[in-house]
Amino acid sequence: MGRLRQQLSAASCALLAVAVAPANAEQSGTATSQLAKARIWEVDTSYLSYRESDQRVSVGKAVATLVRDRESGAVTVSAVHDTMSGASPTGALRSDSPASTVTSVSGGNSRNSLDYSRSEFTDTRRQLGVGIEQELSPRYTLSYGGVVSDESDYESLGINLSLARESSDRLTTLTAGLGWIDDSIYRSDTGGTPEPLGNVQRPRPFSEGKRQTVDALLGISRVLNRLTVAQLNVSLTASDGYHSDPYKVISAADDDDRIVANFHDSRPDSRLRGSVFGKLVHQLRDTQHSLHLSYRLYQDDWGISSQTADLRYRHRLDGQQYLEPHVRLYRQRAADFYQRNLTVDEGSNPVMPEDGLASADYRLDALSSVTLGLKYGVKLSRDAELRLRAEYLDQHFSTAVFDRNSAVILQASFSIGF
Amino acid sequence: MNDSLRIEQRGAIWLGEFRAMASPCEVHLELRSKQLARQLMVLAQKEALRIERLFSRYRDDNVIHRINTANGKTITVDEETARMLDFADSCFHASDGLFDVTSGVLREVWKFDGSDNVPAAAQVEPLLERIGWQRVTWENPHVSLPAGMQIDLGGIGKEYAVDRVLALLRDRSPGACLVNFGGDLHASAAPEATGAWTVGIESRRVDGATASSLQLQRGALTTSGDARRYLLKEGVRYSHVLNPQTGWPVADAPAAVTVAGNTCIEAGIMSTLALLHGADAEAFLDSHEAHYWVQR
Fold first, then answer.
1. Which residues does B246 contact at the CB level (< 8 Å), separation at least 6?
2. Could you tell me which chain B residue has the CA closest to the CA of A257?
3. What is the ipTM score, two decimals?
4. Measuring CA to CA, which residue among A324, A325, A306 is closest to residue A372?
5. Contact A304/A249 with Cβ under 8 angstroms?
6. Is A9's pLDDT higher than 50?
7. Domain CATH number, residue B143
8. What is the dihedral of CA B15, B20, B22, B27, to 10 degrees?
9. pLDDT band at B1 (very low <50, low <70, confident <90, very high)
10. Parent domain of B143
């Protein structure tokens, strides 16, 4: 379930993801310079629980990060352990068969049911990453690192390199980065990927599921005044290889949703993605409270475009504690080849797409989502901080078989420096 | 092995799902109390896993392993294993040697992975000397196999587990129960709410039209077939149904045979034997007045 789970796992942290880049930028802008550089080591541990309603997807994510920070640079080592399980929608229509159970040839991995609309999985993902930040000169910082990730049906290897340049007044930072990722995708039950648009009941092995990705990022962050920091990132990602999802299914059905056949997902063998991300952090005058506003515009050559708006307000309760309400709005246009299902002709034969592309994956459907959350942070000592976060995600899909989804995200993290 | 148990309510039925014997397992119970349903599901799961441990050929700590590695020595078996061996013995004789629990060694050369890797006759031939229940000395409770031979109760273990689990549940559940392990199922009685269990028969046709379904009040249904495992070479499809007497796949075996019976283990033997009769599957089933559905 790798591709899916990797993405779900990513989705489970999507709420974080928007925050990650800005948070780092913030650090380089103000936080690090304010904090005494005396602490050399910092350990950050967190546990995140992501639970979708209806037992769709549950993810438990444990992250441990160790940072060694010196004047000349920093080394970061991080380890991630995810456990994932559930029964996620495959894209297939729910079977119209009234059968409560099914007799079948044994040896399959599917449930004793003709219903292909959900696919069960349990998996564990382990990831190890190393990042090195090196101060080349007072104004230039070079960062590079690598990440390996492994689960029962997905392997990934990535490397990245970036260079940051501070302006002479130290108010502006320019960043340019490049990354490269090598992925292997397969089904955990067959060890391969099924033939795209092949009949689900007669799967034929297709290929090994290899994919290469290159991405490039240009960023600028600037301290506008004593109270405001702004950031703008532009990124471009190109990938080549197997992009279908080996677990996703699309049904061919008549107007009454009577299923004629179920086929494996089929997507283009390349993808070009671009995004622009802007963020503003503003500290309210004469207070310690701050407002974090960000907006992201995304477009790819599959026809998907999306917008994300994110607003956080950090309210300082006292010197040690803060509360941070969070709202996030997301809206997405569907992929060109997304279809709820394939249609059938008068002879009840499936009408196959001319370009050979079809997917009913709900994540490629038009969708909108709202996230509401609250975070509480407390400094336990000069160098130790505890953070608790609770969020609720509500998604609406345009035509997908399962047209709603909701999830509860809970996270506890603890960091200590010494 | 993932031993998680999922429980959900569907109308008047509690459905429990878990994995055992490399198959998805379902238990359907018609009763109100979730607590009782959960207790019974846990019991069912434990029993399934117990039987899996007992008869799995992938373990080295069970009676099957002891028998298969005795190297000609005599092994004394427990009562339950003895009943299974008695049953295997009966089936062997009743089928004129077509059903043979010693035929598993053929897997050494036949690997049904969808490839074109068909073994040479010279590879198959020597194995035949290591197959044949008539060479096994079975005098309850003592069994001995000539060195090099092996038994595999996998072909009847799952059906046996279905019947055993159903028996356990029937005694403890106030309402109707149905147990389905990997597509082989057995129902104790018709559910009151609907008057019958609606059972789908999985379609094996290429174009995958929706399967037919039937109404089952009580009894067992099993399906045997070759659609999931085969070899393909020079346009010839080799089914995974191997004749223990020739060591070669049965020609013209149906894609799937579904048979109704009083117990799962009975129905399972009938559907397996029907496949082994290849082109004569229907004639074989007719001659035994079986209730059946064949997909070619």
1. B128
2. B210
3. 0.76
4. A325
5. no
6. no
7. 1.10.3980.10
8. -20
9. very low
10. 63-149
* Shared domain check, B293 and B208: yes
Total number of domains constituting chain A:
1
Give the residues across from B213 on adjacent strands: B200
Q: Are residues B18 and B1 in the same domain?
A: yes
Residues of B in contact with A118 (CB under 8 A): none
Same domain, B222 and B289: yes
* Pairing of the two strands A228-241 and A193-194: unpaired
Inter-chain touch A104–B202, beta carbons under 8 Å: yes
Instruction: Report d(CA A207, CA A209) in Å as an integer.
Output: 6
What's the distance, CA B232 to chain centroid?
Answer: 24
The reply to whether A107 touches chain B by the CB within 8 Å rule is: yes
Torsion of CA A50, A51, A56, A57, to 10 degrees: 20
**pLDDT tens for residues B96-132?**
999 999 998 998 898 877 778 889 899 999 999 999 9
Dump pLDDT digits (tens) for B141-155: 999 999 999 999 888
B interface mutation test: which of A56, A103, A200 has the most B CBs within 10 A? A103
Give the residue from chain B lying closest to A206, CA to CA. Answer: B114
pLDDT grade for A36, boundaries at 50, 70 and 90:
very low
- DSSP symbols for B52-73: HHHH-TT-SSSHHHHHHTSTT-
Q: Please judge whether B228 and A107 are an interchain contact, meaning their C-beta atoms are less than 8 angstroms apart.
A: yes
Strands A305-316 and A321-332: antiparallel
pTM here is 0.64
- Pairing verdict, β B197-201 and A101-103: parallel
Residues B9 and B67 in one domain: no
Comparing alpha-carbon positions, the chain B residue that sits nearest to A189 is B22
Reading the block at residue B105, the tokens are 């060694």
- How far apart CA A328 and CA B35 sit, in angstroms, is 40
Q: Tell me which residue in A102, A107, A122 faces B2 most closely, judged by beta carbons.
A: A122
Q: What is the CATH number of the domain that holds A302?
A: 2.40.160.40
Nearest residue to A166 (alpha-carbon basis) of A157, A175, A158 = A175
Q: Nearest-CA neighbor of A395 among A89, A182, A102, A67?
A: A89
pLDDT bracket for residue A108 (50, 70, 90): low
Structure tokens that stand for A8 in this block: 């779900």
Distances (CA, A) of B191 to A100, B194, B198: 11, 6, 10
Residue numbers of the domain that contains A384: 2-91+119-417
**Tens-place pLDDT, residues A190-217:** 788 999 998 887 767 777 899 999 999 9
Query: pLDDT for B71-100, tens place per residue?
Result: 999 999 999 999 899 999 989 998 899 999
For the segment A260-270, what is each residue's pLDDT rounded down to a tens digit? 888 999 999 99
A137 within 8 A of A108, measured Cβ to Cβ: no
In this complex, which of B13, B17, B223 lies closest to A105 when CB atoms are compared? B223
- Report the first-to-last Cα separation within chain A, whole angstroms: 40
Q: How long, in residues, is chain A?
A: 418
> Considering only A6-15, A73-82, A214-223, A286-295, which range has the smallest mean pLDDT?
A6-15
